[in-house]
């Protein structure tokens, strides 16, 4: 896992991502979201813990964004979306299928 991560990112790219995350505030932009949102977090993610989900979903709803939430039951923390992709694949497939039928 570390080798794959190291091949895709170097220290500079991680610094750039961290800096962007610290400077960018998505809240003012939420009203410009025009698509449905599937918000997926891992039960063990320390960077984006599931405790933030109610606030994020409330902010999106307030902006008129149709958002759904799914929590991955995983021990892989922040990496769960990739390492445990099979655990949320059916949810993603259903979400994408519904997008196709609603257009």
Can you walk me through this structure?
This protein has a domain at 31-101. Helices cover 50% and strands 12% of the residues. It has helices spanning 2-8, 11-23, 53-62, 80-83, 85-101, and strands at residues 37-42, 67-72. Helix 3 links the parallel strand 1 (37-42) and strand 2 (67-72). The mean pLDDT is 90.
Number of strands: 2
Distance between the termini: 38 Å
The biggest beta sheet reads: 2 strands, parallel
Instruction: Look at the structure and give the mean pLDDT.
Output: 90
- The fraction of residues assigned to DSSP E strands is 5-15%
Order of helices and strands: HHEHEHH
Describe this protein with a few key phrases.
single chain; mainly alpha
Summarize the structure.
With 103 residues, the chain is mainly alpha-helical. Helix content is 50%, strand content 12%.
Per-chain topology:
Elements: H1 2-8, H2 11-23, E1 37-42, H3 53-62, E2 67-72, H4 80-83, H5 85-101
Parallel strand pairs: 1-2
């Amino acid at each position: 896992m570390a080798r794959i991560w190291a091949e895709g990112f170097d220290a500079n790219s991680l610094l750039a991502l961290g800096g962007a995350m610290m400077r960018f505030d998505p809240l003012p932009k939420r009203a410009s979201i025009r698509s449905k949102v599937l918000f997926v977090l891992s039960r063990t993610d320390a960077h984006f813990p599931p405790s933030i989900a109610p606030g994020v979903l409330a902010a999106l709803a307030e902006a008129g964004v149709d958002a759904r939430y799914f929590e991955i039951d995983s021990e892989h923390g922040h990496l769960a979306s990739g390492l445990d992709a099979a655990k949320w694949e059916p949810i993603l497939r259903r979400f994408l299928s519904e997008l196709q039928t609603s257009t």
